[in-house]
Each structure stands twice: as C-alpha cells, then as structure tokens.
Amino acid sequence: MSISTEKLTKAHVKRGDEVEVVSGSERGKKGKVLQVLLKKQRVIVEGLHMISKASRPNQNNQKGGIEQREGTVHISNLRVVTEAKKAPSKKSKE
Q1: Beta strands of 11-80 (E only): which ranges?
Q2: What's the pLDDT band for 93 if we cut at 50, 70, 90?
Q3: Does residue 32 register a pLDDT over 90?
Q4: Residue 22: which domain range?
Q5: CATH number, domain with residue 55
C-alpha cells in the first residue's frame, strides 16, 4: 500500500494546537488548528490559506455573495509550536 492511499488513524497535530507551516505558499505563518481531516490527510488552520467561496442568497444571508474562509493545508506541511518557547519543535514519540 502506498502512503498516499493509506488512511491515517493518528496525526501529530490535534485541534487547538499552535502550528507553523513548513513548506508551501504559506511558509513561516503560524495559526491555531480548527479541524483535522484524517481521511484526507489535511488540516484547517485559522487564518491560513484563505479561499473565496461563493454563497447563494438564503434566509440567513439575504445578499449572498463571495465570502472568505480557511482552506485546507496538507498535514505533512505543518509543525507543532511548543507553548513554553513559542518556537517550532519536533514532537517525540514516547
């Protein structure tokens, strides 16, 4: 089984963790994990990888229009930032 088709059962990040982007267009930026999507191997990070989403008018949003929201970042492009030092660190497997 290749790593791309294999489904993750555990991730090195969890909701609420402070993470830093290691590679990609958002490199060096930090944010808080909002959601972890294990089956897709992706994470939604607060304020990162903003995308434009078109919404239709409905009862809650009378106007509709284009709204900004967070996109997903691949889980391998993230590093956990320790709270004590506020610096990137490797999580050790205990």
Answers
A1: 18-21, 30-37, 42-45, 50-55, 65-70, 72-74, 78-80
A2: low
A3: yes
A4: 18-80
A5: 2.30.30.30
Q: Which two tokens stand for residue 91?
A: 């999580």
| Domain total in the chain | 1
Mean pLDDT, rounded, for 65-70: 91
Question: What gap in Å lies between CA 47 and CA 36, rounded to an integer?
Answer: 15
- Enter the tokens of residue 60: 């809650």
56 belongs to a structural domain: yes
pLDDT at position 94 is 54
- 22 within a domain of the structure (yes/no): yes
How many other C-beta atoms lie within 10 A of the C-beta of residue 60?
6
| Structure tokens, 39 | 């089956």
Report yes or no on whether pTM surpasses 0.90. no
